[in-house]
Amino acid sequence: MSALSTFSSCELSDALLKLGVESGGYIPDISQFSGRSICGPAYTVKFVSSTDTEAPKLSEHFVDTAPSGSVIVIDVPQHAKNAVWGGLMTAGAQARNAIGVVISGRCRDLAEHRELGFSVFARGHSTVGQSPFTRPSAINIPLELVPRGDTTFPSTTVNPGDWIIADEDGVVCVPKELEIMVTELAAKSHAIDEKCMADIKDGKGVKASFAKHRGTK
What we know:
Elements lengths: L8 H10 L7 E2 L3 E4 L3 E12 L21 E5 L11 H9 L4 E8 L2 H7 L2 E7 L8 E6 L3 E3 L10 E3 L4 E5 L2 E5 L4 H23 L4 H8 L4
């Protein structure tokens, strides 16, 4: 287990911003539908529209090749309104000892995920499944997760093996090569914020507490 798991997604985004990661590693518009907070290496899956006959096809079901301890990260075409993850996939992922799924798209069978206690994070939910709308095309490739809608917020790229941290605040990707630096920065900021919290609770004021501990004017 990475030391990143001891920090919130917010603390990790703050650290990534300080390191120059434009998006702070944040993957927008994804909410928690079941389970608990998770931290694990990314196992990436790319979906395409079923009408895309040129994209590769998988020889195995992508759930059956999920590594133990991984977070399955799925990218879905932006226009798709169907779910790409349901209760049977949660059962399969648990059998593989995957710890959760993050979907840049939709899920379904919410009650089943909650009953099984599996962590599902997604942009939304649906009543219709994969077929005949979308299909998996590739695994273990870089995914560029683009925010939905008209926004200038930057995209976040998830590479296989990058650290995925997901909690009630949101989902963050920490590039594996930045793990140690992010951990160190997050620890320093956490200690400072604890001092700020104590002073603010004592009535010393937000501005004064920030100036004292964060060095802001």
